[in-house]
C-alpha cells in the first residue's frame, strides 16, 4: 500500500538531491515547489489508477522528471523573461497614458507658439499611429507564438502597421511639401506590405509560401511601375513592361524550383548503388 | 488541464479504415504457471503511463483530430477470471471491439485454469502495428520478469516520436528527398473477392485458426530455397492457389493479394521512437493461376521481386496522403483520400516468428502463443501467419456467420493441401 507521507518525503529527497548544485533563491524555491506539486498530483493520478507499489511509483515519477537541474536553468530563464515582460507591461501601460497626454501637450503648445494649426494636427495623428503600431507589434509577437492558426491575423496586422506608416508619411509630405506625388507613399506602403508578408511567410515556413511568391512578385512590380511612372522615372505608356519583368522573375524561380526537384524525380535507384 | 497528443498520419489512416475492419490486434499467450496478478497490474499501469496513447481517446473534431489523454482504472484494463470454458472465454475476449473514442485503447485478460494462465490482449491498431506490438510485448515481458524476480521497476519502454516521417531517417539526404516526393498513388484495384456470404446484422466476429504440424516450417524453408522463394512467398503462393480453387476464379484471371510490409526496414535505429504504425501494403499480382502450384510460385516470386528491388518499397503515396491530410479539414481530407485509396479485398500479414524467450514471464516461456490482425468486414479478408516454436499458425478474423466459418475452414484445408503439395512434390 502507498504511504502518502513517505511518498512525499521520497519526492522531496529526489528533488533536493537532483537540485543540490542550484543556489538557493526565490526562483529555485518556486521551481522546487512547482515540481513537488506536479509530482504529487501525478502520484495521486497514478495511485488512483491502482498502482500500489511505492518504489515503482517513485521510479516512474523520477523517470518522468529527469534532469531537474538542467530544466531549472530553462525555468529560471523563463521566469526572468516573465518578470521582465510584467515590468514592461506596467511601463507600457503608464507610458501609454503619459505619451497620450504628451501628444496633446505638444500639439497645443506647438500650435499656439507657431500658429500653424493647419499642420500641427499631424502631431496627434502621428502620435496615435505610433502608439497603435507600438502596441500592435507586441500583439503580433504574441499571435505568432500563440498558435499557427493565428498567423494569418498576424500577417494582416503587419500589413496594417506598414500602411499606417505609409499613410502618415503621405499626410506629412502632403501637408509640409505638397510635391504632387505624395500619394506614391501609399502605393509604396502596399509594396512594402507585400514584401513584409513574403518575408513572414518564408521566415515562418507558411504553407503555400511559394504560391504567395508567384502572386506577390508581379504585384510588387505593378506597384513599382506605378511609383516610377508617378515620379516620372518611366513613362506610363511603356513602364507597364515592368510587370513582365515580375512575370519573368516568376518564370525563372519556377524553373529553378523545377530543376531542383527534377533531380529527385529523375533519380534512378542505380545512381547511388 | 487536458493533455493532448498529435494524431499522426497512420493514426488517421487506420481511423479511416473503420469501414473495412474493427482495427483490433489480438494476442494470446499461454503459460504453464499462475501469473502474479498484483505484479501484472503494476506492469500494465507502468506500460500505460509510459505509453500514454494507450489511455487516450481519439477526438475527431471534423476540422482536425488529436488524442486526448484520459483517466482510467486498472480494473477496466485487466480482467482476471477462472472460466469454466477457457476457449470460449478467450474467444469472447479477443473478438470484442474497443472504439477509438474509448478512454483506453488496450485491454488485457488473465484466465486461470488448472494452474495455468492464458494472457490475452487486444489493442487498437491506431496505436501501433504488429511490428511494434511484438516489441511492446517483449518489453512488457522483460519488465514483468525483472519486477517479479529482481524488484526492478517495470518502466523500460521505448518513448519518442510517432511521426510517419521517421521512415525516412535511414536514408541519405538525396534518398530522403526522393522518398518525400513519391506522390504517385500506386493503389491498383482488383475486384476478385474472397467468397464469403453477403453482410447481415446477425454476423458476429470470429477468429478461425489453423495450425500446421511442426515439420511444415522446415520443409517450407528447404523447398523455398530450392524454388528461390521466401516463406512469405511460399505462403502467398498457397493463398493464391487455394483462393482460385475456393472462389472458382477462372485460371486465366489476374488476381491480386496484398501483403503487409514493415516500413521499419527503411529506418535506422528505432530506440528513440515511440510505439506507432509503420506498415504498408505490397500488392502482389499474378497474371494467371499457373498450370500447377510450382508455376504459381514463380509468378509470386517475380511479382514480389519487383517490389524488393525498389529501394523505396512501401513509401509510395505517403507524401500524397500527408499532403491530403495537411491542406484540408479532416472530414474533407478523408473524403478525398477515400476516392484514391482502394482497400485490398484479400490481404496477408506474416507477423513472423514469435520469440518464446522474449515472451517468457519469470523464466516460463509460453506453451503456446498466437497473434492476429484485425477483424475484417466482408468482403475484405486478412490472412495472418505467425510462427511459434516452429509451428505455423494461420488465422483469419472475420465478422460473419456459420457459413462464413465453414468457408474459411475450407480455405484452411485447401491451404494445407496446397502447402503439402508444395513441400512434398
Features of this protein?
heterodimer, A: mainly alpha, 81% helix, flat, B: 425 residues, alpha/beta, 24% strand, globular
Describe what this molecule looks like in 3D.
- The complex is a heterodimer of chains A (273) and B (425).
- By secondary structure, chain A is mostly helical.
- Chain A contains 9 helices and no strands.
- In chain A, helix 1 crosses helix 2 (26-49).
- Chain A starts with a helix and ends in an 8-residue tail after the last helix.
- Chain B has helices at residues 9-16, 37-50, 74-77, 86-94, 130-150, 173-179, 215-227, 231-247, 293-308, 318-327, 330-340, 402-424, and strands spanning 4-6, 24-31, 56-60, 65-69, 78-81, 106-113, 116-124, 204-211, 255-262, 279-286, 346-354, 368-372, 376-377, 381-388, 391-400.
- Chain B is globular, with a radius of gyration of 21 Å.
- With 425 residues, chain B is an alpha/beta fold.
- The longest helix of chain B is centred in the last third of the chain and has 23 residues, at 402-424.
- The model of chain B has no long low-confidence stretch (mean pLDDT 94).
- In chain B, the strands form 3 sheets. In chain B, strands 8, 9, 10, 11, 13, 14 and 15 form a 7-stranded mixed sheet that branches. Chain B has a 5-stranded mixed sheet with strand order 5-6-7-2-12, sandwiched between helices.
- Chain B contains 12 helices and 15 strands.
Amino acid at each position: 500500500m502507498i504511504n502518502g507521507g513517505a511518498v512525499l518525503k521520497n519526492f522531496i529527497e529526489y528533488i533536493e538531491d537532483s537540485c543540490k548544485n542550484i543556489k538557493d533563491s526565490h526562483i529555485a524555491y518556486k521551481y522546487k515547489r512547482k515540481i513537488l506539486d506536479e509530482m504529487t498530483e501525478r502520484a495521486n493520478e497514478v495511485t488512483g489508477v491502482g498502482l500500489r507499489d511505492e518504489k515503482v511509483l517513485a521510479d516512474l515519477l523520477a523517470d518522468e522528471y529527469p534532469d531537474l537541474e538542467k530544466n531549472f536553468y530553462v525555468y529560471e530563464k523563463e521566469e526572468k523573461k516573465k518578470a521582465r515582460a510584467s515590468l514592461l507591461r506596467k511601463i507600457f501601460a503608464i507610458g501609454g497614458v503619459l505619451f497620450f497626454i504628451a501628444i496633446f501637450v505638444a500639439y497645443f503648445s506647438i500650435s499656439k507658439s507657431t500658429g500653424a494649426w493647419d499642420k500641427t494636427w499631424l502631431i496627434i495623428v502621428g502620435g496615435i499611429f505610433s502608439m497603435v503600431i507600438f502596441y500592435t507589434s507586441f500583439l503580433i509577437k504574441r499571435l505568432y507564438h500563440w498558435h499557427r492558426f493565428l498567423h494569418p491575423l498576424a500577417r494582416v496586422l503587419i500589413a496594417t502597421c506598414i500602411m499606417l506608416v505609409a499613410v502618415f508619411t503621405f499626410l506629412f509630405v502632403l501637408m509640409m511639401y505638397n510635391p504632387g506625388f505624395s500619394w506614391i507613399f501609399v502605393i509604396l506602403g502596399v509594396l512594402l506590405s507585400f514584401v513584409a508578408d513574403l518575408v513572414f511567410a518564408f521566415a515562418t515556413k507558411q504553407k503555400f509560401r511559394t504560391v504567395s511568391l508567384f502572386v506577390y512578385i508581379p504585384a510588387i512590380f505593378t506597384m513599382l511601375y506605378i511609383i516610377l511612372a508617378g515620379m516620372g522615372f518611366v513613362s506610363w505608356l511603356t513602364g507597364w513592361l515592368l510587370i513582365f519583368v515580375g512575370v519573368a522573375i516568376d518564370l525563372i524561380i519556377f524553373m529553378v524550383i523545377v530543376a531542383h526537384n527534377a533531380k529527385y524525380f529523375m533519380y534512378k535507384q542505380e545512381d547511388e548503388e | 488541464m487536458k493533455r493532448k497528443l498529435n494524431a499522426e498520419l497512420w493514426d488517421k489512416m487506420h481511423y479511416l479504415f473503420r469501414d473495412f475492419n474493427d482495427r483490433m490486434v489480438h494476442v494470446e499467450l499461454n503459460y504453464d504457471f499462475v501469473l502474479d496478478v498484483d505484479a501484472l497490474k503494476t506492469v500494465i499501469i507502468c506500460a500505460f503511463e509510459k505509453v500514454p496513447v494507450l489511455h487516450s481517446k481519439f477526438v475527431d473534431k471534423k476540422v482536425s483530430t488529436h488524442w486526448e489523454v484520459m483517466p482510467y482504472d486498472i480494473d477496466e484494463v485487466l480482467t482476471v477470471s477462472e472460466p469454466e470454458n477457457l476457449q470460449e472465454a478467450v474467444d469472447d475476449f479477443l473478438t470484442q471491439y474497443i472504439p477509438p473514442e474509448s478512454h483506453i485503447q488496450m485491454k488485457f485478460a488473465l484466465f486461470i485454469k488448472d494452474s495455468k494462465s492464458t494472457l490475452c490482449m487486444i489493442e487498437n491498431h491506431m496505436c501501433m502495428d504488429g511490428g511494434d506490438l511484438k516489441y511492446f510485448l517483449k518489453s512488457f515481458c522483460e519488465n514483468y520478469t525483472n519486477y517479479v524476480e529482481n524488484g526492478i521497476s517495470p518502466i523500460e519502454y521505448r518513448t519518442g516520436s510517432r511521426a510517419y516521417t521517421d521512415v525516412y531517417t535511414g536514408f541519405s539526404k538525396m534518398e530522403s528527398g526522393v522518398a518525400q516526393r513519391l506522390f504517385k498513388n500506386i493503389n491498383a484495384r482488383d475486384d476478385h473477392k474472397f467468397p464469403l456470404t453477403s453482410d447481415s446484422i446477425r454476423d458476429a466476429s470470429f477468429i478461425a485458426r489453423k495450425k500446421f504440424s511442426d515439420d511444415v516450417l522446415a520443409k517450407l524453408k528447404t523447398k523455398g530455397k530450392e524454388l528461390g522463394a521466401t516463406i512469405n512467398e511460399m505462403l502467398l503462393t498457397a493463398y493464391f492457389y487455394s483462393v482460385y480453387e475456393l472462389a472458382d476464379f477462372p485460371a486465366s484471371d489476374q488476381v491480386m493479394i496484398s501483403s503487409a510490409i514493415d516500413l521499419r526496414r527503411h529506418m535506422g535505429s528505432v530506440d528513440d521512437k515511440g510505439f506507432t504504425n509503420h506498415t504498408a501494403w505490397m500488392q502482389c499480382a499474378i497474371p494467371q493461376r499457373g498450370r500447377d502450384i510450382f508455376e504459381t510460385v514463380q509468378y509470386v516470386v517475380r511479382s514480389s521481386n519487383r517490389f524488393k528491388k525498389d529501394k523505396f518499397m512501401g513509401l509510395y503515396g505517403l507524401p500524397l496522403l500527408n499532403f491530403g491530410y495537411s491542406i484540408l479539414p479532416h472530414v474533407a481530407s478523408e473524403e478525398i483520400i477515400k476516392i484514391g485509396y482502394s482497400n485490398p479485398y484479400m490481404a496477408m500479414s506474416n507477423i513472423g516468428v514469435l520469440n518464446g524467450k522474449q515472451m517468457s514471464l519469470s523464466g516460463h516461456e509460453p506453451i503456446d502463443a498466437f497473434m492476429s490482425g484485425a477483424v475484417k468486414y466482408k468482403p475484405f479478408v486478412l490472412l495472418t501467419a505467425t510462427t511459434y516454436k516452429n509451428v505455423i499458425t494461420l488465422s483469419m478474423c472475420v465478422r460473419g456467420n456459420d457459413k462464413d466459418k465453414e468457408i474459411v475452414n475450407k480455405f484452411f484445408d485447401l491451404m494445407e493441401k496446397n502447402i503439402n503439395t508444395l513441400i512434398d512434390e
